[in-house]
Amino acid sequence: MMTPRGSEIDQLWRKYAADLLRFAGLLVGPSDADDIATEAFLGACRSALGPSVRDPRSYLLGAVANHAMSFRRSRERRWRRDLAAVGPNATDSVDEFADVRHAVARLRVVQRSVIYFAFWEDLPERAIAELLGVSPGTVHRNLTRAKALLRKALQ
Length: 155
Prior knowledge:
Blueprint: H1 6-28, H2 30-48, H3 56-86, H4 98-106, H5 109-120, H6 125-132, H7 136-153
């Protein structure tokens, strides 16, 4: 099997970087988006160029989603540990979008993913399911639950 040359990988990054970075930004926030998108790309780029991958963009977006899920699990464990150490009255600053940030942060990564693909990318549920490697029913269920959770949290 031939491995892709650097120029092929460079072309792949140039073609899809903006999509990967935007998606990663939604999933993990702007401060970590570059790292998540880059690490996911580097881990998946050789496979994305392989003959078994029909749609490299979808494959790479799926890799970003998977990497973001791992990152969020790790970060949430760290947050719980840090919050327990700091105590309840550690911050006094006011954030006028705190409710929105908290509501979105409480969504599972897969729910944030389907919200992104449904509303930002305007993809139908079947396409989202194929992209994320899950069933259309799973996408529908996560989309419905995410919208309901956001609606309830932001009332």
